[in-house]
Amino acid sequence: AKRVYFFGNGRADGTAQMKDLLGGKGANLAEMTNLGLPVPPGITITTEVCKEYFQLGQQFPEGLWEEILEGMKKIEEVVGKKFGDRKIPLLVAVRSGAPVSMPGMMDTILNLGLNDESVEGLAESTGNERFAWDSYRRFIQMFGNVVMGIPHEKFEEILEAKKEEVGAKADIDLTAEDFKDIVKKYKEMVKRETGQEFPQDPYKQLEMAVRAVFDSWNNPRAIRYREINKIPEDYGTAVNVVAMVFGNMGDTSGTGVAFTRNPSTGENEFYGEYLKNAQGEDVVAGIRTPQPLRKSQKTDESQVSLEEEFPEVYKELERIRDILEKHYRDMQDIEFTIENGKLYMLQTRTGKRTARAAVKIAVDLVKEGLITKEEAIMRIDPSLINQLLHPMIDEEDKKRAIAEGRLITKGLPAAPGAVSGKVVFSADEAVEMKEKGEKVILVRHETSPEDIHGMHAAEGILTARGGMTSHAAVVARGMGKTCIVGAETITVDYDRQEFRVGDIVVKKGDIITIDGSTGEIFHGEIKTIPANISGEFEELMKWADEIRDLKVRVNADTPEDALQGRKFGAEGIGLCRTEHMFFNEDRIPVVREMILAKTKEEREKALKKLLPMQRSDFKAIFEVMDGLPVNIRLLDPPLHEFLPKTEEEFEKTAKEMGLSVEEIKKRAEELHEVNPMLGLRGSRLGIAYPEIYEMQVRAIIEAACECKKEGIDVKPEIMLPLIADDRELAELKKMIDRVAAEVFVETGVEVPYQVGTMIEIPRAALIADQLARDAEYFSFGTNDLTQMTFGLSRDDAGKFIGKYVEKGILKGDPFMHIDENGVGQLIKIAIEKGNKTRPGIKTGVCGEHGGDPRSINFFQQIGIQYVSPSPFRVPIARLAAAQAKI
Ligand code: ADP
Ligand code: MG
Ligand code: MG
């Protein structure tokens, strides 16, 4: 097979499609050449050669060198100079380029081919001595560092000493004589450091450089990068050898980088930077401050834009910008160099962009007729949408903060957004400070249901423990709160009211900023950019809605969440958890009374107090969801979750109930279960204590009737959790119908309602045909279903599931992405069986998976009718559902 691909003079062997073989850089250099753009000629040695090289134990395969030499001949012909010539030497850049962009690979080497003789030739033939010696010293520096492994600082020291000696402020102030002396010192230093002379034979230089590129594929930095980013080990890198063009020839030369559209806002405006009389990395390295590309990009009058300085070149660049965008049909990130007023293109690739820019660019490209709506939708990573719904950190200010050493540590990015606030260590304190108008960040080892009010009050939540599906993470995502979990380096010290990371101490009241998109935690405040649901975003979502089949509801327990979900486009409530209404501060004492009641009478007394509270809860939600279905789940968790825990709570409850603390404790003990998650919970509560469920059904139906009287269009659905048996379901269904009928008689109004069941126990999936006799719909509680199918506790899995993923036993955390093989199979069975008994039976997913794009794709395939995520994931689900359809 062909090992070396040529490009130059308007014709290239390769194309942009050949990224795997030529690497991204090489493939695009070929493409630009074929487009007739001014690209200096060059060759690309393929990624296959890199693989061969390693198979042969780091040897060039036979015949490779000859092919390279042939390629060099072609470059020489196009440029009209000879490589290794003493008088008018051809110089080349040696550049690595893997199929995917990979920092950590070898840096580019410029000006290769220079030596003690040809540097004189270069000086003479260009009539520019300073330029020649500047190029040579740059070459020795890059080659010495990258190929010979000499640390950067060794070169910097010599350069800095020289600058000091002659009183030069910047590199630009150094003269030819200065560079000559620097070259001499560089070479001496190279000899000292490596015991070798700096190689003088250009072909030897070339061979060493090509080898260095291949070798860099397996340097620790690159390996680590591939590990983190899941890039296959066997891709290999290509090597590009490209004729040099010179941006450092004086004031009519320069080098720059640009984006064809603004990468942070997505605005359709050319955006970039350049430096006069400079080479290669000077622009990004911050040696001098680069100047703006466009006049209108200037931020102060002292700047000189490329548009003003090189108007002809600028026009040419604009023309190329247009060609590239039309051709690639996407925003490009380009690198260019100007040699004596002539423009050369050195690279193009798809430009990285913020979430906001990604959406704007995709929508604009549709309007410009370059891509279809479907393509626009497919181009947006749904998880990016998440960032758009929350304030984002200001990158400039963050850079500053990092430079000032304010980055404290990093945890897992559990819920996006960037927020600042004072550190507090308890939920109560969070509430108190919030009431005083302070912004707080709640910092805990981990959170539990008792912290909910504090989580609500806080701007953000930070925990030292827990994984991406821990309590804090799940609840925060549900609330749309910024959250970082599992910041393992943090020690939370409740006694001293501080947290520590190494010898950094953060005390209560100190201000920190947390970025839930990256997991970073900073001292002090960092500027943020507010969430921006711009016109384009809305437009994109509208297109998604037109395309998708899958409906999207929302999980909401409060009117606020319901409203948020509705604003984000939810088409109903897929799960309304009634227990969350029980955790409310005014309610919990009554709930405790109910639970600790010894007799039915005692219990009914407490339930009577709860009834109006629940009724008003439901009514408020029905009002918000006017016209849309609301699926309410009857009480689900094990009762012990509501019991008093602290001594103080026991005393309070005892007083309220007129009993002794001992008596209360005794009753609490009786409720103790060995394995509560498999104990008295879900519909078992409805069988064991029918009056609890009766009260809830009554509250729902009464609220619905009241709403109907007020002209609100209510569509209640009553859902029974944790059903395992058809007779269990039949009994509860009978109760629901009886209570509803009673209420209808009492109120004189009738409201249509549906009764359905959760499918969250494997047995329920297997007998779904029997359940469908009474159940009018199925809602797959995929959290519990996963837990029970795997026999894996969600709250404990975090401690070891990582090992399973690491070892490749599991592809991912099954609580994040649905397990298609096992859990997915159960869902399929249930849908099939359900349809046999009740054709077209309504099916939905209300677990965390309902907001996960990968899982949504699967749900679409197996015919689920709706998903129901937490409010802030509704837009993500809408987009993912459209993508699943396309
Ligand atoms: P990276 O992958 O880090 O972007 P490149 O191979 O693109 O590395 O090289 C970095 C810089 O070196 C380019 O932006 C350009 O300024 C300069 N450069 C690369 N090739 C050439 C060349 N043939 N002539 C002049 N400068 C070059
Ligand atoms: Mg580059
Ligand atoms: Mg459940």
TrEMBL record:
Keywords: ATP-binding, Kinase, Magnesium, Metal-binding, Nucleotide-binding, Pyruvate, Transferase. It holds the Pfam family PEP-utilizers_C. Substrate binds at residues 577, 633, 760, 781-784. InterPro entries: ATP_grasp_subdomain_1, PEP-util_enz_mobile_dom, PEP_util_AS, PEP_util_C, PEP_util_CS, Phosphohistidine_dom_sf, PPDK_AMP/ATP-bd, Pyruvate_phosphate_dikinase. GO terms for molecular function: ATP binding; kinase activity; metal ion binding; pyruvate, phosphate dikinase activity. The keyword Transferase applies. Catalyzes the reversible phosphorylation of pyruvate and phosphate. This is Pyruvate, phosphate dikinase. It comes from Desulfurobacterium indicum.
